[in-house]
Design goal:
Elements (H helix, E strand, L loop, with lengths): L4 H18 L5 E2 L3 E4 L4 E3 L4 E2 L3 E5 L8 E3 L4 E2 L4 E4 L3 E3 L4 E2 L4 E3 L1 E3 L20 E3 L2 E3 L4 E2 L4 E2 L4 E2 L4 E2 L4 E2 L7 E4 L4 E7 L4 E4 L1
Parallel strand pairs: 1-4, 2-5, 3-6, 4-7, 5-8, 6-9, 7-10, 8-11, 9-14, 10-15, 11-16, 14-17, 15-18, 16-19, 18-20
Antiparallel strand pairs: 12-13, 20-21, 21-22
């Protein structure tokens, strides 16, 4: 109790009771926690959240579209949206204030279906492409993961990065857009600059 104080300990106790009542396989879901369309979301064992997290699913065809693996830990204010498919592997660690989405209001791919900038953004047709975050990925503070992206196994994405293209396995990537700067060498067991 000394670590949290009386008020903090009370909030933690309420979160523990909430977790055990509504998410039995989870380790701890700290409140407030916002889950929208829970029937279309699959959460694995050992799931842990920080405060203010929001996960939501808006499937096109009444099937599960958001899959969270085992032992996934997301810290405060993570927001995940799925419309087509967002798959988060096992043992993924997310820092705070991360945004992951497989969809956006409109398409901006440079083809004939592009959204007109004079149209109202909220009324543009929704566009989606699957997102995959493989096992043992670590996402730093304020990372954004955009539609159509795969992040490879064991990859680390540095703080404030925007992942708009696929990242391979076992790299450290940073920037906007995120680009690999190091790759793990299994022979030397060291991270090497690319």
């Amino acid at each position: 109790m000394g670590k949290y104080g009386i008020f903090g300990f009370s909030k933690l106790l309420i979160s523990v009771v909430y977790t055990k009542l509504f998410f039995r396989q989870a380790r701890l879901i700290r409140l407030p926690f916002d889950i929208r369309n829970k029937n279309y979301i699959k959460i694995g064992r050992g799931f842990t959240t920080g405060f203010g997290c929001r996960i939501e699913a808006y499937p096109k065809d009444k099937r599960k579209v958001l899959f969270i693996g085992e032992n996934v830990q997301m810290n405060d204010y993570v927001h995940i949206t799925a419309m087509e498919s967002v798959v988060i592997g096992n043992n993924v660690l997310m820092a705070s204030k991360i945004y992951i989405s497989d969809c956006s209001h409109g398409s901006y791919l440079g083809n004939t279906n592009d959204s007109n900038p004079d149209s109202i953004p909220a009324e543009r047709a929704l566009f989606s492409k699957p997102v995959v975050i493989k096992d043992n990925v670590w996402l730093g503070e304020f990372v954004s993961v955009l539609p159509g992206v795969t992040i490879g196994k064991g990859t680390i994405v540095g703080a404030n990065s925007v992942v708009s293209k696929n990242l391979p396995d076992y790299v450290i990537a940073v920037g906007t857009p995120a680009k690999p700067i190091k790759k793990y060498n299994f022979e030397t067991q060291k991270w090497k600059k690319i």
